[in-house]
Amino acid sequence: MKEFAERLKDLRLEKGLSQRELAKLVNLSHTAILRWENQTRIPNGEAIVALAKFFGVTTDYLLGLTD
After folding, report:
1. pLDDT attached to residue 19
2. pLDDT digit string (tens) for 7-66?
3. DSSP state, 57?
4. With contact defined as beta carbons under 8 Å apart, do 57 and 35 qualify?
5. Alpha carbons 34 and 65: distance in angstroms, whole number
6. For residues 31 and 47, what is the distance between their CA atoms, to the nearest angstrom?
7. What are 60-67's contacts with CB under 8 Å, separation 24+?
8. CA-CA 20 to 30 A from 25: which of 1, 8, 16, 48?
C-alpha cells in the first residue's frame, strides 16, 4: 500500500489540505487519513472510492495500478 499512501498524501498536498481538512470534506476520520498515509492501516473499498471521487482520479490510480 506504499503507492496508495504516497499518492494520497501527494493529492492532499496538491490541494493544500491538512489531514483533518481532507477527512472532514470526505466524511472520514482524521485518524484514518493519518494511518493510511503512515501505512499502518489499509483503507476499505468505500473509502478508496470516496477519495478517488473527491480528487477526480480513478481508484486504479490511487492504488498505484495506473499512472
Report:
1. 98
2. 999 999 999 999 999 999 999 999 999 999 999 999 999 999 999 999 999 999 999 999
3. -
4. no
5. 22
6. 13
7. 61/7, 62/4, 62/7, 62/8, 62/11, 63/3, 63/4, 64/2, 64/3, 64/4, 64/7
8. 1
Q: What predicted TM-score, i.e. pTM, was given to this entire model?
A: 0.95
Distance of alpha carbon 8 from alpha carbon 41, whole angstroms:
13
Cell of 22: 481532507
* Grid cell in block for residue 47: 473509502
- Grid-cell match 490541494, residue found: 15
What one-letter code names the amino acid at 51? L
Q: Is the pLDDT of residue 1 over 90?
A: no
